[in-house]
Amino acid sequence: MTVKLTLPAQSKMLSQDFIYGVATASFQIEGGANSRLPCIWDTFCNTPGKVVDNSNGDIACDHFNNWQQDIDLIESLGVDAYRLSISWPRVITESGELNQDGVNFYLNILNELQRRNIKAFITLYHWDLPQHLEDNGGWLNRETAYLFAAYADKISQAFAGKVHSYATLNEPFCSAFLGYEAGIHAPGIVGKQYGKKAAHHLLLAHGLAMQVLEKNSPDTLNGIVLNFTPCYPESDSLADIKAAAFADDYFNQWYIKPLFDGEYPEIMAQLPKEHQPEILDGDMTIISHSMNFLGVNFYTRAIYRADADEHFLQIDAPEPRTDIGWEIYPKAFTELLLSLNEKFTLPPIYITENGAAMADKLVDGAVNDTDRIDYYQSHLNAVHDAIEQGVQVDGYFAWSLMDNFEWAEGYLKRFGIVYVDYESQLRTVKASGLAYKALISNR
Ligand code: GCO
Fold first, then answer.
1. Contacts of residue 273, Cβ cutoff 8 Å, sequence gap at least 6
2. Which of the four CATH numbers 3.30.465.10, 3.40.30.10, 3.40.50.11890, 3.20.20.80 does domain 12-441 have?
């Protein structure tokens, strides 16, 4: 039974400069929904059948009221950094002005973090688009990219001197594909003609915001957070290998290649015209603005086989799996980091999310989540292996600080290293949280 997290004695991940943190996102933890504008996730949650347990983000972990105690909790874990996202509908009014009450909510948090020497890693967009912008076309409307840059401009001025790092977007793949193509995330739009258009506007928003951050906040680490689900062929057949490569371009490379190479993957030419984004002159230059860091989120891999009708067919994830059904396959993490490092000229990488949903049980005031500790151990090892082979990784964030609203899964899947009782809002540090704390403090 694993109760400890360890790394080889010489590991760079045991140096004091390697940053360890915990991560959250505004809609998933805050609640306080009455004190901000509605966002697309409010609407999605209120549409029957969209969220498994019919829950919503009205209260969530009530971090809106419990934030002080939550910062005590973060400090108690001994982490170097806290990755949080800003709720756009909390800080910007419908007419595009700063909402000072909302800004103050975050300023209080940033001041407390600073006082305790915890670095703030801010994500400007973790999926909670103001609903009034969606009513105007959302990410299918190019204008949203410019409104995002205007928000980034105002908020980065308001936060001056209090932030260590800004990520423009969290996982544009999820916003674009899950939100505007598969329709399983807000705003729930379905159709292949939409996904890549939304993706282009998201990436444009990122590039425009990078220009703003470079001007307003030149001393912070500015970049983006991408998620990767590496694609593996089911067999050695050429057809399966091609299917996996196509899926990789469609789901993964689509979001990183424009950032570093200024172009979309070649498979774009194989997509029907009406599925392609509309790219204006100069867009790719804006999108490929240089960055100070790349955030990488990793949870699992996916396996594909060739398919006569579609370019690829994803097969069911083999065992072992986490409680959300995702295969546990840490080798893909090392291989991902190596392949990104080989394909692109990257700035330093931060692992901005990694973690596992497990079927936790609170027994006698404790959660003995040794399965999650095993997950963390094997994935920390995977990062260590990539570093040993030459990849520059400067930090690692556990997803998540605490159990929270897991999007379309509602509150049924627990990713925290801290357990949340949603009735009492009582937090209990799980065994994994204690192990993470010990790893960090033993450096
Ligand atoms: C993500 C998300 C998190 C999820 C986590 C588990 O960026 O995908 O940041 O919000 O909760 O990934 O699905």
1. none
2. 3.20.20.80
